[in-house]
Amino acid sequence: MTIAIYDTYCGSLNSGDAIIMDAVTQQLNQLFPYEHKVRYPTHYPLSSKAIRRIKKSSMVFVGGTNLLSSNIFLRSKKNQWAISQI
Known about the structure:
Largest sheet: 3 strands, parallel
Oligomer: single chain
Structural class: alpha/beta
Strand content: 15-25%
Order of helices and strands: EHEHE
Number of helices: 2
Shape: globular
């Protein structure tokens, strides 16, 4: 089983993101100690190959603050997703 993790700290200088992603990693390692985990950055656009791999993942997790919106495709200054399509 492969678990995809959208990593809000990758490409960020926000130490709060580092703390949150450390906690997310600890919890996922406790819940799924033997599963393969792959991290994907949220601050940089993903390739179509990465998006296909995420879609094939058994589970996908997101960690971070101020990340979720009712419309992740809405381009605004507050949108932290660097994803053009899912």
